[in-house]
Amino acid sequence: MSISRSKKPNISHPSPISNFAPDEEKSTGKSGRNGEMELGKYLGIDYGKSKVGLAIADSETRMAFQYGTLNNDKNLLQKLAEIVEKENIKKVIIGIPSYINREQAIYPGEKLGNFLKEKLNVEAEYQDEMFSTREAQRNLIEKGVKGIKKYDDQEAARIILQAWLDKKG
Questions:
Q1: Tell me, what DSSP letter sits at residue 15?
Q2: 10 Å Cβ neighbour count for 15?
Q3: pTM score
Q4: Could you tell me the CA-to-CA distances from 62 to 25, 54, 55, 57 in Å, in that order?
Q5: Radius of gyration of the chain measured on its C-alpha atoms
Q6: Is residue 144 assigned to a domain?
Q7: Is residue 139 assigned to a domain?
Q8: Domain containing residue 74
Q9: What residues form DSSP beta bridges with 127?
Q10: Which residues neighbour 27 within 8 Å (Cβ) at sequence distance 6 or greater?
């Protein structure tokens, strides 16, 4: 499987997850005992209209690492399913904007989370992604990375996932 970035985003297609959102949100009810984190791997997602940044972590090291970037196209769900299976992902953490009124609108990242729960039986949680892209770009500049745009989505996913891991203590 290859993870790639095209030079021009394909914005002519509707969101590939728009048809997959279930009518009702289902809760799996799974959680660690006494607030503890379950053992396993976690996939962090920075969901965007044209690109989806990915990061990965496991509960033992509690450190998030950049994983890659996918195009948000008709193949997105299949590629995510392959990654979830290949990496044996237990839970997906999706960045969502804090300004979304979750009672009035469903953010596309939440539709993705619902799809993952229903079709792949993977838990999804949400983490505030405010300023994650700006922070990612700043981190990459400080590290002297060339071609920041090539890596900022996956670095933003790493920041989102790390913030979730830190919050879980």
A1: P
A2: 15
A3: 0.73
A4: 28, 16, 12, 6
A5: 15
A6: yes
A7: yes
A8: 38-168
A9: 95
A10: none
Q: Is 89 a domain residue? A: yes
Residue 155 sits in a domain whose CATH number is 3.30.420.140
Residue 110 to residue 107: CA distance in whole angstroms: 5
Contact assessment for residue 54 and residue 84, using Cβ atoms and an 8 Å cutoff: no
Most distant CA atoms of the chain, gap in Å = 47
What is the separation of C-alpha 49 from the centre of its chain, rounded to a whole number of angstroms? Answer: 13
Per-residue burial over 64-89, b if 16 or more Cβ lie within 10 Å, else e, is: bebbbbbbbbeebbebbeebbeebeb
Total structural domains within the chain: 1
Per-residue pLDDT in tens (0 to 9) along the chain, 169 residues: 444 433 333 323 333 433 333 333 333 333 444 445 567 899 999 999 999 999 999 988 899 999 999 999 999 999 999 999 999 999 999 998 877 655 656 778 888 999 899 999 999 999 988 888 888 889 998 999 888 888 899 999 999 999 999 998 7
| The pLDDT value given to residue 79 | 96
Q: For residue 28, tell me if it sits in a domain.
A: no
What local confidence, expressed as pLDDT, does residue 23 receive?
34
